[in-house]
Specification:
Rossmann fold, 7-stranded parallel beta sheet, 8 helices, 45% helix, 14% strand
Length: 258
């Protein structure tokens, strides 16, 4: 199926690893022009070698000066913007609310929620000039369910859904679609680290903690980042022109998080 995205100008934050990398490559496969940013210099170097058609920047989305430089570079490399994928995020701390540090709380909110605001506010003037404008914000199943021992992450991801719905309502008159993706347990080192940290906090084995986390999931397998990427690409295509303000789950039917 031709998604009619040849030449689409796309920015993917945290695009050198995991979901971001899969998303950047999925857009490129459809003929889009892709700019990625990341804080991981080694991963950016690797992408420069493996995916030389993409342009890239170093950027910490929680740093507004860094984000301003990013958008200056996007303007130079792409000449405009049709789609922003607000993918950058961190796992944040694991622990009870009275155990985590205020510094860990602040950092998680700064990257996972405020970072999306920092990028969106600069992207919107560019998106207003597009004939197929969209924004996709990465939330999580932690943005739909309580997630014990993960309060900063859950708070940020619930915030992303509210941010998405507010932007959809205010930007619809400009033809800008705004949606959120809510992944489940995504295969990769981040979820394995989360499982390990929760297992230590609860004094159980890694295997038992994994079983507990899948207890409320119908399809008991980790989500492949490529499946999330395909959903994001579709939402940015002209075929999704009336889809906005949605929280789209790619999660194997997650009913609760443990």
């Amino acid at each position: 199926m031709d998604l009619q995205m040849n030449g689409l100008r796309v920015l993917v934050t945290a695009g050198a690893n995991g979901i971001g990398r899969a998303t950047a490559r999925a857009f490129a496969a459809e003929g889009a022009r892709v700019h990625i940013c990341d804080v991981d210099l080694a991963a950016l170097d690797a992408m420069a070698k493996s995916d030389s058609g993409m342009t890239q920047s170093v950027c910490d989305v929680s740093d507004r000066d860094s984000v301003a430089r990013l958008f200056d570079e996007v303007t130079k490399t792409l000449g405009g913007l049709d789609c922003l994928v607000n993918n950058a995020g961190i796992a944040g701390p694991t622990g009870r609310v009275d155990e985590i540090t205020v510094e860990d709380w602040d950092r998680c909110i700064a990257v996972d929620l405020t970072g999306q605001f920092n990028c969106a506010r600069l992207a919107v003037p560019m998106l207003k000039a597009s004939k197929n404008a969209s924004m996709v914000n990465l939330s999580s199943q932690a943005g739909k369910h309580g997630f014990p021992l993960r309060s900063p992450y859950a708070a940020a991801k619930w915030g992303v859904i509210g941010f998405t719905k507010a932007l959809s309502a205010e930007l619809g008159e400009f033809g800008i679609r705004v949606n959120a993706i809510c992944p489940g347990l995504v295969d990769g080192p981040r979820i394995q680290s989360v499982i390990a940290n929760k297992a230590r906090s609860m004094n159980v084995s890694h295997e038992e903690m994994t079983e507990r986390m899948f207890a409320g999931v119908s399809i008991k397998e980790f989500v492949n980042p490529n499946d999330i990427a395909k959903q994001i690409v579709f939402l940015a295509s002209p075929f999704a022109r009336t889809i906005s303000g949605q929280e789209v789950s790619v999660c194997g039917d997650t009913r609760m998080l443990s």
